[in-house]
């Protein structure tokens, strides 16, 4: 499983970026992934524990899945 980390963000910026991807962002990325012959990932909203984890340092993990 791959992991992508954005460094240099504030805790607030990381939270906002994760909310954008979970909301509008995952729909907006479809065109980019299609142009690169790849399936766009989606947030895993059915994951036990939720689609996102924010730790005590403000680091954010967004859990994704790829549709079949």
Verbal overview:
- By secondary structure, the chain is an alpha+beta fold.
- It has 2 helices and 4 strands.
- β2 and β3 form a beta hairpin.
- The protein is globular and about 35 Å long.
- The two termini are 16 Å apart.
- The model has no long low-confidence stretch (mean pLDDT 92).
Write the layout of secondary structure elements.
Layout: H1 11-28, H2 30-35, E1 42-43, E2 52-54, E3 60-62, E4 64-65
Antiparallel strand pairs: 1-4, 2-3
Short recap of the structure:
With 68 residues, the chain is α+β, with helices and mostly antiparallel strands. The chain is built from two helices and four strands, in the order ααββββ. Strands 1-4 form a two-stranded antiparallel ribbon. A two-stranded antiparallel ribbon has the order 2-3.
Distance between the termini: 16 Å
Radius of gyration: 13 Å
Helix percent reads 25-40%
What's the main sheet like?
A: 2 strands, antiparallel
Element pattern in H and E: HHEEEE
Shape descriptor reads: globular
Let me know the number of strands: 4
Number of helices: 2
Strand order of the largest sheet: 1-4
Structural classification: alpha+beta
Mean pLDDT: 92
Task: Work out the strand percent.
Answer: 5-15%
Could you name the ranges where pLDDT drops below 50 across 5 or more consecutive residues? Answer: none
